[in-house]
Amino acid sequence: MSEFEPIVGRYLNVAIQGRNHRIYVEEAGEGIPLLCLHTAGADSRQFRHLLNDEEVTRRFRVVCFDMPRHGRSDPPDEWWLESYELKTEEYLATIEAVWKGLKLDRPVVMGCSMGGAIVLRVASDFQDEIRGIIGLESAAHAPGRYNEFLLHPAVHGGELVATYTFGLNAPQSPEEGKRDNWWYYAQSGPGVYRGDVMFYSFDFDAREHVKTIDTAKCKVSLLTGSYDYSCTPAMTEKVAAAIPGCRYTEMEGMGHFPMIENYALFRQYLLPELEVMEAD
Question: What span, in angstroms and rounded, lies between the C-alpha atoms of 163 and 165?
Fold first, then answer.
């Protein structure tokens, strides 16, 4: 039997820090905007199960986009003249440009890994403009993910990055989910994962910013997998301790990519947080 999924994809042309970008956006559902940010080197396909979850899309307009250079989004003009190294302010400007370009009213912003890191700055910088954040595998400072082989002429970059990140899944997560994520990573453009990790490992530090988040204005939910050794539960606990009123849950049996490696388990942790975000 043939049928279409409810996901609709289109391109948004938007200026980011004075440069024109063609950003791929997909969405499903209606209600409170839920803007989703993918992990380093990947794309919004990581959220395909969420986009197909009717229990979520009945109440939330789930919107996912590929960062520039990632997935189906194009690089900016004359990208070949520069080395890609994502910076915190560029990342924030991209997120803001997309949500305002789509006219999302007080969205909930949910991100994982590097997306889970940047949502802490989104909450700090835009807490009067958003409803809340859901941080998946969130750390305020996480150096150490970079290595020199991420862009090397003697190494197959796609297979290296895909296999490098494969180990961040929980061992008991379904093989299909882990392999889906492997495939998405294997398709990343040369140097894209490296450029993201430059942000994650060297540029990003929100340890002081998180102290400014007022959860009376901007709700904060943090979910981290017990098997995550890139952003450990202890690292997220430090973030939670710095934000009075923050909700934190360790996801037992989960690794670094909850929305794709084991969605059935992840949704058990996510749905209660969405109820919190939905409440006035």
Answer: 5
Q: State how far the Cα of 242 lies from the Cα of 219, in Å rounded to an integer.
A: 14
* Short-list 9, 61, 7, CA closest to 35: 61
Sign of CA dihedral 181, 71, 7, 33: positive
Q: What is the pLDDT along the chain (280 residues), one digit of tens a residue?
A: 789 999 999 999 999 999 999 999 999 999 999 999 999 999 999 999 999 999 999 999 999 999 999 999 999 999 999 999 999 999 999 999 999 999 999 999 999 999 999 999 999 999 999 999 999 999 999 887 777 777 777 777 788 889 989 999 999 999 999 999 999 999 999 899 999 999 999 999 999 999 999 999 999 999 999 999 999 999 999 999 999 999 999 999 999 999 999 999 999 999 999 999 999 8
Side-by-side strand order, sheet with 60-65? 8-16, 19-28, 60-65, 32-37, 108-112, 132-136, 219-225, 247-251
Write down how long the chain is. Answer: 280
List of residues 6+ apart from 71 with CB closer than 8 A: 24, 38, 42, 43, 44, 45, 184, 187
Which distant-in-sequence residues (6+ apart) come within 8 Å of 151 by Cβ?
Answer: 157, 190, 191, 194
Alpha-carbon distance of 48 to 65, in angstroms, equals 12
Residues 6+ apart with CB under 8 A from 17: 89, 90, 93
Residues 6+ apart with CB under 8 A from 83: 191, 195
Instruction: Point out which residues pair with 60 in neighbouring strands.
Output: 32
Query: Which is nearest to 39 in space by CA: 198, 219, 181?
Result: 181
Q: Which two tokens stand for residue 43?
A: 């794309």
pTM for the model stands at 0.96
